[in-house]
């Protein structure tokens, strides 16, 4: 499934916006008043007639209607000028009592999960370095924001900005391959899969991969993304030099040799120290891997954990809430002497998933009141659906019913038990992972000892997390994904450390958004943030856990925000980072509201 930034051009007839809708004014005329005659004693003088209020009443009514007329005219003018048009659209007049037309150049940009969305009139897509330099120069001069945004895969929309964005999707070339040094220089807009395809004929590939392949290289590096393997660092560690287009200092190149302090800081710079235009990456020889999937339990994992971490190039655990099941997935190079293992699976792919299909049919009968003999015409052929697609459809029926979610989790555990076995393929094919559909995710990173001496805190974290889920009756779907990396020397990386042998565990909790129903998505979102808040308050400080930059969410509560800012300062060199931002981008044209709130100047914290 293609997972990419969603960009739509607005059209007046297809967008709905809330605005002030005027209503016709109605009023009833007041009844005429009659002069009251008071009785007075007889007098020879001619009495002065009592003045009638007709003239003053008429004046009052006139003022009232003039006021209403002025109000209507003012609202009409305000409505018109509230929607600025491009010059070629000035003929589109706003009309009273109707929605005012929107400008033709308005873009709607959302992340892949649909959890964050902005509308902007400024969306640059330069085709080469010179065009990018001009865009940055003009924005710096005008002090207008152009936040760098990649493929829009970050669950928290860290690259989005209503004020304006710059996207390098058209700067996607492989510029140079050095087979001897096993390095490749690329434009930062190239996607991971494009890069891998572009260098495979040279016998090279990337050292590690995240779960999916649609990220732009600039984006995956800047947010400190990672794969898995306790001997392998996060992806920013693969970068050996970068070319940055900065607002204040123009285009600069940084590396271990050229300005090493800025180089390490900018490798995981969150797009705020300059637009990453080019990246030189250390690659490895292209190789086939054998993936081995087994199903274990907590007791066995504790016994074999150190061995699993040290003896496998890549390893991850998939924990299934409300069960004792732990799915263990290891990946290692195919032996040159023995070749790939010979293995005959006990179950076919159809047999492994059939019980999930049966659960789907059963759930349809319960939740949609239909029979399997006469299904709804718009229901898909379930035999064509993958496991993750079936899981989404199952969850959509009752996503917050804990008992129902437990049934789905149990079905997932059984699916993995029937899917045990081996798979052989190139690393870019094997190391991917079908994460499922749209979702909310919170992923934290925390120290787990060293490879020689694991602290076992990683397994304790999972035990505490699962107990918290069960105690709080959280309808937590599967899986809880757990991965490991070596340390990073980038100080802004969640896995940064001065200890050369340190390892870090990454744990992700999840709630899927399997429906487009706004009410249901809102309810799932509220439940997810309750789930996340519980893990934050009970576990993060205890395990020194910090969220992945692409998954951190900014609190709305001022006290919570202040606590988060203080917490980030304890872990990361925020003052040094802000100093570099001031020097390279004094007008903060590469920033957005999220970064401004996470990293305010020290005097405002």
UniProtKB/TrEMBL annotation:
Region annotation (Disordered) ranges: 30-57
Organism domain of life: Eukaryota
Cofactors demanded by this protein: FAD
InterPro entries: ALO_C, FAD-bd_PCMH, FAD-bd_PCMH-like_sf, FAD-bd_PCMH_sub1, FAD-bd_PCMH_sub2, FAD_lactone_oxidase-like, GL_DH, Oxid_FAD_bind_N
Pfam families attached to this UniProt entry: ALO, FAD_binding_4
PANTHER family hit by this protein: D-ARABINONO-1,4-LACTONE OXIDASE, L-GULONOLACTONE OXIDASE
Entry protein name: FAD-binding PCMH-type domain-containing protein
């Amino acid at each position: 499934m293609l997972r990419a930034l969603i960009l739509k051009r607005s059209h007046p007839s297809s967008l709905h916006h809330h605005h002030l809708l005027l209503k016709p004014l109605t009023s009833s005329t007041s009844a005429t008043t009659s002069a009251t005659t008071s009785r007075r004693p007889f007098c020879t003088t001619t009495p002065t007639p009592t003045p009638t209020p007709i003239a003053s009443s008429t004046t009052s009514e006139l003022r009232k209607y003039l006021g209403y007329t002025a109000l209507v005219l003012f609202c009409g003018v305000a409505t018109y000028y509230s929607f600025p048009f491009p010059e070629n659209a000035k003929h589109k007049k706003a009309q009273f009592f109707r929605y005012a037309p929107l400008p033709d150049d308005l873009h709607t940009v959302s992340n892949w999960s649909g959890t964050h969305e902005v509308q902007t009139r400024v969306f640059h897509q330069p085709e080469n370095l010179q065009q990018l330099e001009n865009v940055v120069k003009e924005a710096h001069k005008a002090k207008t924001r152009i936040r760098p945004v990649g493929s829009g895969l970050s669950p928290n929309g860290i690259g989005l900005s209503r004020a304006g964005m710059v996207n390098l999707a058209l700067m996607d070339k492989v510029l140079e391959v050095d087979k001897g040094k096993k390095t490749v220089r690329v434009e930062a807009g190239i996607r991971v899969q494009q890069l891998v395809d572009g260098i495979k004929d040279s016998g090279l590939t990337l050292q590690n991969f995240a779960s999916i392949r649609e990220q732009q290289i600039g984006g995956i590096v800047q947010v400190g993304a990672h794969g898995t393997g306790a001997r392998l660092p996060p992806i920013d560690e693969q970068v050996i030099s970068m070319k940055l287009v900065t607002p204040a200092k123009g285009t600069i190149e940084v590396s271990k040799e050229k300005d090493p302090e800025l180089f390490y800081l900018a490798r995981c710079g969150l797009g705020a120290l300059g637009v990453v235009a080019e990246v030189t990456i250390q690659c490895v020889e292209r190789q086939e891997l054998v993936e081995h999937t087994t199903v274990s339990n907590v007791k066995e994992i504790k016994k074999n954990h150190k061995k699993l971490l040290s003896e496998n190039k890549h390893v991850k655990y998939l924990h299934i809430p409300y069960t004792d099941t732990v799915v263990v997935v290891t990946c290692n190079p195919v032996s040159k002497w023995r070749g790939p293992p010979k293995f005959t699976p006990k179950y076919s792919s159809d047999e492994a998933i059939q019980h999930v299909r049966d659960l789907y049919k059963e759930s349809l009968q319960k939740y949609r009141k239909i029979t399997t003999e006469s299904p709804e015409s718009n229901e898909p052929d379930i035999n064509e659906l993958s496991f993750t697609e079936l899981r989404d459809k199952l969850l959509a029926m009752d996503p917050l019913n804990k008992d129902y979610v437990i049934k789905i989790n149990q079905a997932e555990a059984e699916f993995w038990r029937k899917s045990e076995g081996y798979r052989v393929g190139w690393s870019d094919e094997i190391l991917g992972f079908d994460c499922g559909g749209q979702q909310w995710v919170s992923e934290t990173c925390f120290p787990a000892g060293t490879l020689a001496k694991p602290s076992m805190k990683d397994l304790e974290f999972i035990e505490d997390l699962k107990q918290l889920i069960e105690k709080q009756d959280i309808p937590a779907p599967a899986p809880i994904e757990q991965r490991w990396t070596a340390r990073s020397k980038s100080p802004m990386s969640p896995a940064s450390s001065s200890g050369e042998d340190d390892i870090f565990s990454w744990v992700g909790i999840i709630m899927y958004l399997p429906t487009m129903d706004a009410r249901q998505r809102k309810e799932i979102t509220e439940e997810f943030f309750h789930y996340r808040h519980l893990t934050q308050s009970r576990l993060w400080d205890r395990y020194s856990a910090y969220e992945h930059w692409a998954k951190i969410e900014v609190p709305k509560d001022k006290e919570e925000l202040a606590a988060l800012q203080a917490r980030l300062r304890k872990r990361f060199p925020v003052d040094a980072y802000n100093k570099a931002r001031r020097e390279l981008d004094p007008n903060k044209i590469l920033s957005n509201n999220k970064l401004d709130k996470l990293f305010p100047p020290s005097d405002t914290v």
